[in-house]
Amino acid sequence: MTEKRLPATASMQLENGRVRVTRYDFGVGAETGWHTHAHDYVVVPLWDGALRLEEPEGVRAVELKAGVSYARGAGVEHNVINASSGPFAFVEVELL
Length: 96
Known about the structure:
By secondary structure, this protein is mostly beta strands.
């Protein structure tokens, strides 16, 4: 049986034809759900936290630090789960 998790909340902040900026807020254990990125993107964590990434190759844990950004390319398929003991949030900037 698949574990039922609460969804992360996505709040669109800006979209102008060149970039799309979305803030994601996660309660404890919340997830994005499986998705595939159609564009290159940058993630900016708003505070320190732990995420569990479910990917086609398996599951991995990552520790993020507030303000320490990372980038990934289009085509990334995954589910992002908040593995922190409290809420977590990041801003995602997609390059359209």
